[in-house]
């Protein structure tokens, strides 16, 4: 029963930053049923899950408590496991839910394609784009994007910058 409560709490806070972990809304109840494989598409569908949710919750409430959650599982157990007795079906449905947590389905994965690698290879960049990266391929940041003015008195990219003082001293 402790694992059942943990699963209830994990699903109740999933996707909601303000959730306390004491109540499930209809969306998270449906997610719990889907992730724990209570919904099998034949005996139990998402419609059945929604009907059971509205049956066990209080008339004006939009959420169910842990006790109502247990009653909802009792309602779904005989429907999900038809050949078993009521107690066996309830134990089987508890085994499906116990210790489970929400899964992230449909999360975008990073595409690894040769085309992307070729386009993002900084060693092949030319022109002004090449100036934005150092030899290792790391970006230079602001230095690579903007032409930062050096207030030395020399023209930009002058090869003999900083040699004036040595020339003047040698001539004297």
Automatic annotation (TrEMBL):
It is found in: Cytoplasm, Cytoskeleton. GO terms for molecular function: tubulin binding. One of its GO terms (biological process) is microtubule bundle formation. GO terms for cellular component: microtubule. Pfam families: p25-alpha. Residues 128-148 have a biased composition (Basic and acidic residues). Keywords: Cytoplasm, Cytoskeleton, Microtubule. It comes from the Eukaryota. Residues 121-148 are annotated as: Disordered. Belongs to the TPPP family. This is Tubulin polymerization-promoting protein family member 3. The gene is TPPP3_1.
